[in-house]
Design brief:
The chain has helices spanning 5-11, 33-36, 42-53, 66-69, 108-117, 139-155, 172-182, 231-239, 270-282, 296-306, 309-316, 367-371, and strands at 28-31, 57-59, 62-64, 73-75, 121-126, 160-164, 187-191, 220-222, 256-258, 287-289, 324-329, 337-343, 349-355, 361-366, 376-381, 386-392, 394-400, 405-411. By secondary structure, it is of the alpha/beta class. It is globular.
């Protein structure tokens, strides 16, 4: 069935869920922008795929790849397009086909085949920000543009697509319907910087976001502006997930709140790298790496963080809630320290305590008040992979250094 412009308008006011089977747990992978920005090409993408798939580092006594850990989605971001070569100076031709810069990407199908041969999923990027397309007014051409873009995604063998908010092709419901109609499962990332989110009744993708799985026409959604490798950016972006942690939560299986790609490996200190990763884990954010995987020394440095199977398990678990801010305290803003918690199966609770200040500070947990856990509880230290002494009433987390964190699991 072809989607007319009249139907496209109607889609803006109806719930149109996607049917791709993706996003039932927070997606994991790597995307090119934080590493290469606009300086990306097919060779760099394929070299990255090699690194994701190779088993050269140990996890729990076994040679393990990033893909083995769950980082299976490798995404190409902006600047694959042949800017200015299309109709009206765009990068789509008169028939609506996207025009690829074949000097940097000689074969998109060859690239996806390369990834698939390594057991990976490969993602593309549309509604681009570089040479953004904003000037089309003919309804017939707009429809062709949408239809041919979706056909190109499928023909090239992509398994996912990041839909940015820079161009005029922002109707995520329409994108979702067209992709559904192809019969190919394509994971959809909504990159509208927090402007298109679950619970909206109008706009680019109205949906309640309260069904199981979520009925929104995207698998994860940006809750924030673009991230950068600074503590201020990491902490600020984390806070944008709070509004989706209500009851019922709007970050849930099928559609996850996403405060942008990880900057782990790009931060100023190891403590910041670790806390950043833990924060994304505790709120069930997609874990999309962004460091240079060909830099072996860098990957070696952060391997204990990104390969922490206990932290990843917290991120991937679902027991009815994606994680929440429990309390914060200290400093003029009242947020020098924060405690986040996430319910886990079997009545367990994961807790992350993080430092947002410039000095060391002690922290404790009131087990009953903060977590609803009475009596004696077992304590697991996720960062150090060890069991601690049982706790009753109050648990003392000790002194936490600047921008560092403590990550625990409490169980009865």
């Amino acid at each position: 069935m072809k989607t007319s412009m009249f139907l496209a308008g109607a889609l803006a006011t109806t719930v149109q869920a996607i049917d791709n089977g993706y996003g039932l747990t927070p997606p994991m992978g790597w995307r090119s922008w934080n590493c290469y920005h606009a300086n990306v090409n097919q060779t760099l993408m394929e070299n990255t795929m090699d690194k994701v798939a190779e088993r050269t580092r140990m996890v729990n006594g076994k040679l393990t790849s990033m893909a083995d850990l769950g980082y299976v989605a490798v995404g190409l971001d902006d600047n694959w397009q042949a800017c200015g070569t299309g109709v009206n100076g765009s990068f789509h031709d008169a028939a609506g086909h996207p025009l690829i810069n074949t000097k940097t990407f000689p074969s998109m199908k060859g690239m996806t085949d390369y990834g698939h041969a390594k057991g990976l999923r490969v993602g593309w990027y549309m509604n681009n920000c570089i040479c953004a397309e904003k000037h089309f007014t003919d309804p017939t051409y707009i429809q062709k543009h949408m239809e041919e873009s979706v056909k190109a995604i499928v023909a090239a063998g992509f398994d996912g697509v990041k839909l940015d908010g820079c161009g005029q092709f922002r109707n995520l419901t329409w994108w979702g319907q067209l992709l559904n109609e192809t019969g190919r499962s394509v994971m959809i990332e909504n990159c509208h910087w927090g402007g298109t989110v679950p619970g909206q009744t109008t706009g680019d993708a109205p949906c309640t976001g309260t069904t199981m799985p979520s009925n929104c026409p995207y698998n994860f959604f940006r809750s924030s502006t673009d991230i950068n490798p600074s503590w201020k950016s990491i902490f600020s972006n984390l806070q944008t997930t709070i509004k989706f942690q209500g009851n019922p939560p709007l970050s849930r299986p099928g559609t996850w709140a996403y405060p942008d790609m990880l900057e782990v490996g790009n931060m100023a200190t190891y403590n910041e790298d670790r806390t950043h990763f833990g924060a994304w884990c505790i709120v069930s954010s997609p874990l999309i790496l962004g460091h240079d995987l060909t830099n072996e020394a860098l990957t070696d440095k952060i391997w204990p963080i990104i390969s922490n199977t206990e932290a990843i398990a917290v991120n991937q678990a679902w027991a009815g809630h994606p994680g929440r801010l429990v309390k914060q305290w200290g400093g003029s803003g009242g947020n020098d320290m924060q405690m986040w918690a996430k319910a886990l199966p079997e009545g367990k609770q994961a807790v992350l305590i993080l430092s947002n200040n410039n000095g060391n500070e002690t922290a404790s947990i009131d087990l009953e008040k903060d977590l609803g856990m009475s009596g004696t509880v077992a304590v697991r230290d996720i960062w150090n992979h060890k069991d601690l002494a049982e706790a009753t009433g109050t648990f003392n987390a000790g002194t936490i250094e600047t921008h560092d964190s403590r990550f625990y699991i409490f169980s009865k």
